[in-house]
Amino acid sequence: MEYVGRVPAAPLDQFIDDIYCLTGVPRHRLMSVPPMPSAHFFLHLGGPVRLWDSDSSVPLAVFTEAWFMGVWTRRFLFEYPPRVRLVGVHFKPWGMSPFVGVPADELRDRWAPADAVWQCSADRIRDRVGDAASAAETLRVLEEELRSRLADAPARGLDLVQHTGRRLESAHGAIPVAALADAAGVSGNHLANMFRTHVGVTPKRMARIYRFARLILSVDALRPVDWSELAQTAGYFDHAHFSREFKDFTGHTPTEYLALRRRFPTERGGPHDDGPMPAD
User: Fold this and answer.
1) Phi, psi at residue 62, to the nearest 5°?
2) In angstroms, rounded to a whole number, what is the distance separating the alpha carbons of residues 193 and 272?
């Protein structure tokens, strides 16, 4: 598949890692996605996309148009249609907050139709994107739509979450939450409440996801992998804890995961390409 993406211009870049188009025939239809430090918006102009939670009690979801996904704390699976034409947004963990009218914790580990979140029809953006002749034009239209939906003033606590969230991001989660709260001059409870509102999870949970992302993105499947060294560099100092969390987040042991990475090399392009793995 072809991936065309870019970072949007300010002020959207404070909230969005990239906007992108993904088109073509997928090499693998079914993908398993571990928790990563982002939230998402998808607009699909092809066939239906099916999504499964790793929690088997959650029913299958089928989307034919546009949907949002909050920050995920566990893995999920999605199935591409035979041919893909997908327009997407990778939000920073706190980045969806100024675009939607619901608290982020209501979208944690959930997907929701765009109409339900924006409380308006997605027809206009779908029609504008569908009429675009090129990927560059599609991204221009998407950026215009996002700019028009950006709140004029930040909601209470968003500045605090952005500031501390950036520190977590730059430290790959390897910073005590108490130190974040002390540096910001707020209590740990207040910081946790603001993170739940604007990110959907506590800073402690967000730190775990950043730590895991650092580990996964540092794996070079073409070279020998010293899991103990990678785990320690990422901030895992208890091997049993590392093994449990890795299995929870990927569905595989480190050895199984590495074998899959070597069997199914990732298609480079997007900022999170090393996370999803074939599941078919």
Assistant:
1) -125, 125
2) 28
